[in-house]
Write a structure and sequence with these properties.
GO terms for molecular function: bis(5'-adenosyl)-hexaphosphatase activity; bis(5'-adenosyl)-pentaphosphatase activity; diphosphoinositol-polyphosphate diphosphatase activity; endopolyphosphatase activity; metal ion binding. It contains three helices and seven strands. The chain is α+β, with helices and mostly antiparallel strands. The N and C termini lie far apart (29 Å).
Length: 160
């Protein structure tokens, strides 16, 4: 998503165009959005439960790459334009079976480290999510109950 193109002010919804892996797992793309000095990571509030998460969501069939999906999710959920700097790789599902639901089924996560180039004041999910810059230590504490998100954070190059 180039910064010059018009970005939609409406989030995609539903799973009609969702990609799935060979074991039926939902393919999810996400971003670890860092400040330019790499001292801070931007977390967003979860809409499903209390607490903080990294921007992430389903990789859809009309998106050529997981990177495209990750950048779209960063825009929709956090209102940020990012430049991807590293592929942090695939992260398997780490949630316990009792944490999985029909709304949050088993997933395979593909995370990317990115530098936030622009943080908009208005974005598609601004009315249902807040966002907050955190240090590595603060983010580790905020993501403590989400091992797959902690894994992505630990793989990034931000200052510890």
């Amino acid at each position: 998503m180039a910064a010059t193109q018009h970005l939609p002010m409406e989030s995609r919804t539903g799973r009609n165009n969702q990609r799935y892996g060979p074991q039926g797992e939902r393919l999810v793309a996400g971003i670890v959005p860092l400040s330019t000095d790499k001292y801070y990571v931007l977390l967003i509030q979860s809409t499903k439960r209390s607490g903080w998460v990294l921007p992430k969501g389903g990789w859809e069939t009309d998106e050529a790459t997981a990177q495209d999906a990750a950048k779209r999710e960063a825009w929709e959920e956090a209102g940020i334009i990012c430049k991807i700097s590293y592929d942090l790789g695939l992260i398997p599902e780490r949630r316990r079976p009792d944490q999985l639901t029909t709304q949050a089924p088993k997933a395979s996560y593909h995370f990317f480290e990115a530098t936030v180039e622009k943080q908009e004041t208005q974005w598609p999910e601004m009315h249902k999510r807040s966002r907050q810059w955190m240090t590595y230590t603060q983010a580790r504490q905020a993501l403590a109950d989400r091992p797959e998100l902690l894994d992505a954070l630990d793989r990034c190059t931000m200052h510890r």
